[in-house]
Design a protein that fits this description.
- With 380 residues, this protein is α+β, with helices and mostly antiparallel strands.
- The strands form 4 sheets. The protein has a 6-stranded mixed sheet, sandwiched between helices.
- Strand 12 and strand 13 form a beta hairpin.
């Protein structure tokens, strides 16, 4: 590994409308390194990659970079929907700075790796999102960039292609001396691929070092924030005789489609009298703030009575969570004697990661519906 960094980021700050997405951000990257970039949603990861890919510029700061850069930030970036897969390989290769002869030499290998050879002469507007990303990744990985930047887009591909893509990035870095920046919420992939990682939180670089140590710091950060379950400072509506006091989601950082979800909820009677017939509701909204599920003690015919000045803890257990990968918010609602007692909209958020829900080696497509149904298809 060369002593001179191939990439230097010095005091980079990026502001959007007065809000800092990145703040005085600095790190070096050497040739042949595969660097993991991890952090919660909104930590600044995608902003950093867009700056490094020259999609946007830093508000202040200096970036020094050597060689050619290939970026895979969004599905089909640089592809023209009306052109065929073949034409887009040549177009995207040219955008990445390759000559026509270089693209020709790599063309068969690119198509074979992508697995879309049957459709290579079909306009890419007819491709599925998975086909799109497979071809886009194949081009970026095979056209010999000095620095390859890969965001979470590989989640669109199926499980088999993800393994193939991770293997290719490992090959690009370790065998060919290329440099890779890899953003993922899949800690297993980061651990297997990256010897060094950095941790972002609220636009700040809060950790840099061996990947195992950084992952440990990340999980501790997630766990500590998940354990900050007090609802005292939340904006709320209602009479307030009964109030929610805390909420905790078990295994907050390890929720996948098809896994069980356990929510521990506490609420208290702040009066000196027993309150009977209280109703507890939980609304689940997706990242677009669309209600996709509603849980209610009333629907279960569960009668809730709370003694004077008494706190109750309730476990809400959802088996085999049939929700797609996304960020979700929980709204808490309590009613008694026909009056709203407490109502906290989006009291807490949690993320669900994609997984092999159907046990077929294929990941459910992202952005197609809200729920995952168990189903069968048979010829009659």
């Amino acid at each position: 590994m060369s002593d001179n960094p191939i990439l230097q980021v010095q005091d980079v700050t990026k502001a959007f409308g007065g809000i800092l997405a990145l703040s005085r951000f600095s790190f070096d990257l050497h040739k042949g390194e595969i660097l993991g970039i991890i952090g919660k949603n909104g930590a600044g990861k995608s902003t950093l990659l867009k700056i490094l890919s020259r999609v946007t510029s830093p508000t202040i700061g200096v970036i020094k970079m050597e060689g050619k850069v290939a970026s895979l930030l969004e599905v089909g970036t640089g592809f023209h929907p009306e052109l065929t897969g073949r034409e887009n390989v040549f177009l995207n290769g040219a955008i990445l700075g390759m000559t026509k002869n270089e693209i020709k030499r790599k063309f068969d290998e690119i198509v074979d790796f992508s697995g879309v050879g049957k459709y290579i002469d079909t306009p890419v507007k007819r491709y599925s999102s998975g086909m799109y990303v497979r071809l886009a990744f194949a081009v970026a990985a095979h056209l010999e960039p000095d620095i390859l930047i890969v965001d979470e887009v590989l989640a669109v591909g199926d499980a088999e292609f993800q393994r193939k893509a991770l293997g290719k990035m490992q090959d690009v870095g370790k065998m060919h001396g290329r440099t890779v920046l890899f953003v993922s919420h899949n800690m297993g992939a980061v651990q297997n691929l990256c010897s060094r990682s950095i941790l972002l939180n609220n636009g700040h670089l809060i950790g840099s070092g061996p990947t195992n140590d950084i992952i440990k710091n990340y999980l501790q950060l997630i766990e500590s924030e998940a354990n900050k379950s007090s609802l005292a400072d939340q904006k709320r509506e209602g009479l307030g005789e009964i109030r929610f006091t805390s909420i905790h989601i078990q295994n907050h950082h390890q929720i996948t489609s098809g896994s069980d979800l356990k929510i521990y909820l506490k609420f208290k009677n702040y009066t000196h009298k027993e309150i009977k017939g209280a109703r507890i509701d939980i609304g689940i909204d997706n990242s677009m703030y669309i209600r996709i599920a509603h849980l209610s003690s009333q629907t279960l015919n569960k009668t809730i009575s709370i003694l004077p000045d008494h706190e109750v803890e309730m476990l809400i257990h959802i088996e085999k969570l049939p929700l797609i990968a996304d960020r979700y918010g929980l709204t808490l609602y309590c009613e008694a004697a026909g009056q709203i007692q407490d109502w906290i909209k989006n009291a807490v958020y949690f993320d669900i990661e994609n997984t092999d829900f159907y046990h077929t080696g294929k990941l459910p497509p992202v952005g197609q519906g809200n729920i995952l149904l168990k189903y069968a298809m048979e010829e009659l």
